[in-house]
Write a structure and sequence with these properties.
By secondary structure, this protein is α/β, with parallel strands linked by helices. The chain has 2 domains: 175 residues, 3-Layer(aba) Sandwich (Rossmann fold); 202 residues, Rossmann fold (3-Layer(aba) Sandwich). It is built from 14 helices and 19 strands. The strands form 5 sheets. Strands 12-11-8-13-16-17-18-19 form an 8-stranded mixed β-sheet, with helices on both faces. It has a 5-stranded parallel β-sheet with strand order 2-1-3-4-5, with helices on both faces. Strands 6-7 form a two-stranded antiparallel sheet. Strand 16, helix 13 and strand 17 form a beta-alpha-beta unit. The longest helix has 29 residues. The mean pLDDT is 91. The structure holds cytidine-5'-triphosphate (CTP). The site of cytidine-5'-triphosphate (CTP) has 15 residues, from helix 12 and strand 16.
């Protein structure tokens, strides 16, 4: 990140004591760092500390005429190559999500076109609160990169998810973001997401509870890792992650057609969609009338998109998902073998699990490897999954190079 200009926002939380170290880590990598503090942040650390480590006057106030004369806030918003808010308090996330401009830092976030990353830090109950979850989901959907939080001991004496990611790791993640050459740079990734709808008649269909959140998070994570991403989505109400090409489809048959069309040149296929397994043999041309006490609908199997891709001779690296209500790992392993996949991510689904939730938990199985991605936000899990895929791809390339060398 040599010469990159980082605007570091510090908000009010005890983790602010780690932010001067973050400034040093960013500067070690050659970045210029301009610190902007909220009023609450100044209750924890003084501007003098940040001035000493950043070598620049710290900005704290939207209404400071001298500072504004030197570099106005709009100019400062344009100056930044990236904005990192660390720590990002629950209050700041709420203000950012609702687009407030009630202090200098919030105004800068609204006025900048640079990528924004936030490193949340707060008590674990505050992090788990529905309001915070909704704010974070909204920010992530708008393309804000959410780094963490990490789990562990908290300053309040409790334990859980809410610690700020360590400065060294934050500096590395930001460097990767700015370099643009992420783990999947140069790869084309094709992803399916959401449910499918199978028509019964012109006004009715059979579908399922999939929200598409996991698939959209995987698309966002793959894009952030530098991939060229195509997302084939069933009907969902989610915004397209920035930089991702989206193709909307309705039925399993439409999804298969779109996937086969997009497949050439694809390096990785990730099948997160909850494709309907059966469809009505015939969709009625007119609305079905309630003529009888019971209604029988004859159903037939839909095409299996994932198995079709995995069976192609020129196939990409194929990743499936397994949604299970019982014997999660065992059923996933069977699907890995039966559908001839390279990797499968298994999760438990049920009334209150996984579907439409912002959180999830995954067991990832590859040929000869097993990983656990513990309970976390779907974007954090998606990032973990993308890293595992990148690692497996790199290991394959390495094996095939060694194979060539030995031959
Ligand atoms: N899948 C697919 N096309 C289908 C059915 C499933 O592409 N017609 C994919 C899903 O996207 C997922 C994987 O297959 O990656 C497993 O889906 P899941 O619903 O867990 O299993 P099924 O294969 O449908 O088997 P079952 O419903 O019997 O568990």
């Amino acid at each position: 990140m040599q010469g990159k200009r980082i605007l570091l926002g510090v908000t009010g939380g005890i983790a602010a004591y780690k932010s001067p170290d973050l400034v040093r880590r960013l500067r070690e990598r050659g970045a210029e760092v301009q610190v902007v503090m909220t009023a609450a942040a100044r209750e924890f650390v003084t501007p003098t500390t940040f001035q000493a480590v950043s070598g620049r006057t710290v900005r704290t106030d939207l209404w400071d005429p001298a500072a504004e004369a030197a570099m106005g806030h709009i100019e400062l918003a344009r100056w930044a190559d990236a904005v990192l808010i660390a720590p990002a308090s629950a209050d700041f996330l709420a203000r950012l999500a609702s687009g407030r401009a009630d202090d200098l830092l919030a105004t800068l976030c609204l006025a900048t076109e640079a990528p924004i990353a936030v490193a949340p830090a707060m008590n674990h109950v505050m992090w788990a609160n529905q309001a915070t979850r909704a704010n974070v989901a909204q920010l992530a959907a708008r393309g804000v990169l959410v780094l963490g939080p990490a789990a562990g001991d908290q300053a309040c004496g409790e334990e859980g998810l809410g610690r700020m990611v360590e400065p060294l790791e934050l500096a590395e993640q930001l460097a990767a973001l700015l370099a643009g050459g992420g783990e999947l740079a140069g790869r084309r990734v094709l992803i399916t997401a959401g449910p499918t709808r199978e028509r019964l008649d012109p006004v009715r269909f059979i579908s399922n509870r999939s929200s598409g959140k996991m698939g959209f998070a995987v698309a966002q994570a793959a894009r952030a890792a530098g991939a060229d991403v195509v997302l084939v989505s069933g009907p969902v109400s989610l915004p397209t992650p920035p930089g991702v090409t989206r193709i909307d489809v309705e039925s399993a048959a439409d999804m298969l057609a779109a996937v086969l069309k997009e497949l050439p040149g694809t390096h990785v296929f990730i099948s997160t969609a909850a494709v309907a397994d059966y469809r009505p043999v015939r969709a009625a041309q007119q609305k079905i009338k309630k003529a009888n006490d019971t209604l029988e609908v004859s159903m037939e199997r839909t095409p299996d998109v994932l198995a079709t891709v995995a069976a192609r001779p020129e196939r990409p690296f194929v990743v499936g998902f397994a949604a299970e209500t019982e014997s999660v790992e065992q059923n996933a392993r069977t699907k890995l073998m039966k559908k001839n996949l390279d990797m499968i991510a298994a999760n438990e689904v049920g009334d209150d699990k996984a579907f439409d939730s912002d959180e999830n938990q995954l067991i990832v199985l590859a040929r000869g490897a097993r990983y656990e991605l513990g309970r976390a936000g779907k974007l954090a899990l998606a990032r973990g999954l993308v890293s595992l895929i990148a690692r497996e791809l790199a290991a394959r390339a390495d094996r095939s190079l060694r194979g060539t060398a030995l031959a």
